[in-house]
Input
Amino acid sequence: MIGSGIYGMSNPKYTDKGRIHLLPDAFESEEELAKTLYHEKTHIEQFIQYGHEYVMNNRDRFEDLSESLEDTYFLKKEWLKT
Ligand SMILES: [Zn+2]
Output
């Protein structure tokens, strides 16, 4: 599973708050772990807000949104370091 390019998965079915599964690639670095948690937490919020079925039926759009939010969060974080 290392090098698969899949860092984590989110599953809303376990509780009303969802569950995040971290895969080995997520542990490449501290930053990758933080990005993965942020990305998957965004999916959990999407599941809670829009429902599992709607999110899964529109997963490409929600994936793009999660990736852009992840990028925005980390660009802001890098900007604050300077
Ligand atoms: Zn995703």
User: Anything to note?
Assistant: The CA atoms of residues 47 and 53 lie 8 Å apart. The longest helix spans residues 59-81. The first strand starts at residue 8 and ends at 11. The pocket of zinc ion is lined by residues 39, 43, 63, 66 (CB under 6 Å).
